[in-house]
Design brief:
alpha/beta, OB fold (Dihydrolipoamide Acetyltransferase, E2P), inorganic pyrophosphatase (n-terminal core), Diaminopimelate Epimerase, Chain A, domain 1, 5-stranded mixed beta sheet, 39% helix, globular
């Protein structure tokens, strides 16, 4: 029996969240119960504006990457983008390729096709060198290609690595590396997709085309306090804060040479808010003999953001959204900085709005496909991408595929992408044709795109067939292998498994057996494997202990891949047998169902969908909301599905009859409960759209007769 758990939260914390962030008490209680109590975290649930995305120039090496690409443009160099075969790699390649094309670079792309291995190869480098290429940019790969990148340098080819996979102990060199997971990357959030990393590079490249790129700017504000004055400055470059200075000065006691202002301001353009007032205050402090060369930026900003015209910084501070979520950023100068960055973004990027929205659609798809944790800026990236898709302006290629998947004309959710669109796109890479999906997105001919979309549907059907065949080989073999690996690991080695579905069957094996799983198959050249993990065990730590067997390996903590010579497979498996005894899990194997909120009968209404929408998107690190209601009555039950394994219940609650789906529960009717019983339920709330009509629907997570299950 599963454990029902409802975390206790202090009433005072709930009330404080509700008051400070202007949300209802139910929403505040869910946030508190999920441990989301810091304003900097709450922001990503209650806001979705692109302004709250992290600045691409926070990456320590971003400016170097941009400059190298701009040099390639100026020198008319040939550039190669090398990506991965999965959805993350395909989308990464697409948005960077189109950006470089828009900038006028001589650019081509390459994705691993057929049985080619993950990551860039020396053969690809040789071919590129023969064509006089001089710059390679990797996307969603490259961080483990030490030998290949050193080889490229020998050929006179520079490499920019944009990746998000776990880095090896020794980073590839020489290379410009943009990866949020490397030490001292400068980036504040490590868990973005490879496509998001490429998108950050694209954003930085677009900004580089404006006059403010690399320009040193100082935002300055002077304000009085009792008998003194405070002069505050922020040094800004490429939309990032580089330094900050605060001087408190009593007029007449010091001259400007005795302050730190002159060296801080030297060589920079000074922007102020309301020059007349600032000039008067500075004259009071230093006298009329000191003249500051300042530009009043308020009127310029008001042209883009009219609401701030004639507004003081004090008033601006009180309206700062960022200040509401982060008390350390609520000074007048912080308000100035925030509105300045908003102004730059709106002024610079307005001409790229459509392309940016098209990019965000792919970034959202990649984040969901690569199972990125749905927290921090991933939430805004996905919300923006979904909003863009649902606005009706869907990017070319995506709209043709969505039409064939019957996703047009409805509100598309992250779940729709997970179960419909993403498997179809992934099928192209799994079956060795990732370029088919990329061509779908970059082809200029609508008729051709429609044909490509049909080809992707066919590949997906073939992928499903291969998946069924592979599972027939894996299911029993995986179960039987447990005893050889101390019941801590499942390992299958079968050359009949198509390499394109190893990840799928490995995940399924892991889910069913509730232990980490490894599936190995073979191609003509080598053996290839996928590894998936659960219960808090990082599978990459296991693979790292076997690195002597691999050609290459890498990935994420709970999903990784590797290749190795065929003769190394048996020694590798033998070592896994020895290491498996050391595997320790940090999470229990017993299913725990966390309850987000208990709803009285009269609270269950379609209005709950507003709260459900607020916590979208759902997925990794942000499970669907689980509600609990006790003492509801089952008034009807029907078996549904082609094999009649599911239940459609009708639940009487609060005087309303609610439709409720209960998956894989047909054997429970008349055994655990029956029509007419009063039961306690844990459930999700969602929309069901049929024939254009929208209804609220429950999905049962767990159910028992009233009083039989205790909540801990």
């Amino acid at each position: 029996m599963s454990i029902w758990k409802k975390k206790d939260v202090a009433k005072e914390i709930v009330q404080e969240i509700s008051k400070r962030y202007s949300c209802d008490l139910l929403t505040a209680s869910i946030l508190a119960r999920r441990g989301i109590t810091d304003g900097k975290d709450i922001l990503f649930y209650t806001e979705k504006d692109q302004r709250y995305l992290h600045n691409p120039f926070l990456f320590e090496n971003m400016e170097d990457a941009v400059d190298r690409i701009l040099d390639a443009k100026d020198e008319e160099e040939k550039v190669l983008i090398f990506g991965d075969r999965d959805v993350d790699g395909i989308t990464s390649t697409t948005i960077l390729y189109q950006c470089l094309k828009d900038l006028g670079l001589d650019v081509q792309y390459k994705l691993p096709s057929g049985d080619e291995a993950y990551g860039i190869s020396k053969e690809v480098i040789d071919e590129f060198a023969k064509n006089y290429g001089s710059l390679i940019i990797t996307v969603d790969c490259g961080i483990s290609n030490n030998d290949e990148i050193a080889y490229a340098a020998e050929k006179g080819i520079d490499v920019i690595v944009t990746d998000h996979h776990n880095p090896p102990q020794e980073l590839p060199s020489p290379a410009i590396i943009i990866n949020p997971k490397i030490e001292n990357s400068g980036y504040p959030f490590a868990d973005i997709s490879g496509c998001a990393v490429a998108y950050k590079l694209v954003q930085a490249l677009r900004f580089s085309r404006c006059s403010m790129y690399k320009q040193e700017i100082c935002l300055m504000n002077v304000r009085p306090i009792t008998d003194a004055y405070i002069i505050e400055c922020i040094k800004v470059q490429n939309m990032t804060e580089k330094a900050r200075l605060t001087e408190t000065i009593i007029p007449g006691l010091v001259n400007i040479q005795q302050t730190r202002l002159l060296p801080f301001l030297q060589g920079q353009q000074i922007f102020v808010w309301d020059k007349a007032v600032q000039t008067k205050l500075l004259s009071t402090i230093f006298g009329n003999g000191i003249e500051f060369n300042m530009l009043d930026i308020r009127d310029e900003i008001a042209k883009i953001i009219p609401s701030v015209a004639n507004m003081s910084l004090l008033r601006l501070k009180s309206l700062s959204t960022i200040g509401k979520y982060d008390e350390s950023l609520c000074t007048e100068l912080d308000g100035f900085f925030n509105i300045f960055i908003t102004y730059i973004q709106q002024a610079i990027f307005k001409n790229n709005n459509e392309r940016n929205n098209f990019d965000l659609q792919l970034v959202a798809i990649a984040a969901i496909a690569d199972i990125m944790p749905l927290k921090n800026e991933n939430r805004i990236l996905i919300k923006q991408g979904l909003d863009s898709i649902n606005s009706g302006k869907i990017r070319p290629g995506l709209i043709e595929l969505m039409a064939r998947l019957n996703l047009i004309g409805k509100k598309v959710t992250s779940t729709d992408l997970s179960w419909g669109l993403i498997p179809a796109l992934n099928a192209t890479g799994r079956l060795g044709e990732p370029q088919t999906a990329l061509e779908l997105f970059i082809n200029q001919d609508a008729n051709e795109r429609d044909k490509i979309a049909q080809r992707i549907i066919e590949l997906n059907q073939e992928r499903k067939k291969l998946g069924v065949e592979a599972w027939n080989y894996c299911e029993q073999a995986g179960f039987n292998s447990l005893k050889n690996f101390n019941n801590n690991l499942a390992v299958v080695h079968d050359s009949r498994i198509n390499r394109g579905v190893t990840g799928i069957v490995t995940s399924r094996l892991m889910n069913i057996l509730n232990v980490p799983a490894i599936v190995i198959t073979e191609t003509e050249e080598c053996a290839i494997g996928s590894a998936r993990s659960t219960r808090g065990y990082k599978i990459t730590s296991l693979l790292d202990q076997c690195s002597e067997f691999f050609i290459n390996h890498g990935g994420h903590d709970f999903a990784a891949g590797f290749s190795l010579p065929k003769e190394n497979v048996n020694p590798f498996i033998e070592k896994l047998k020895k290491l498996s005894v050391l595997i320790e899990f940090s999470e229990t194997s017993e299913e725990i169902i966390n309850i987000d909120a208990q709803l009285p009968h009269n609270y269950l209404s379609p209005d709950i969908l507003k709260i459900v929408d607020l916590f979208e998107p759902y997925g990794e690190s942000n499970a669907s909301l689980n509600f609990f209601t006790d003492k509801v009555k089952i008034v009807d039950a029907n078996l549904i599905g082609t094999d009649k394994t599911h239940l459609k219940l009708t639940i009487l609650c609060g005087g309303t009859k609610w439709p409720a789906l209960y998956w894989n529960a047909s054997e429970k009717i008349k055994r655990d409960f029956d029509i007419g019983d009063t039961v306690d339920i844990i459930y999700e709330v969602s929309r069901n759209i049929f024939n254009g009509m929208e209804n609220t629907q429950l999905t049962i997570v767990d159910l028992c007769k009233s009083g039989e299950h205790k909540i801990v």
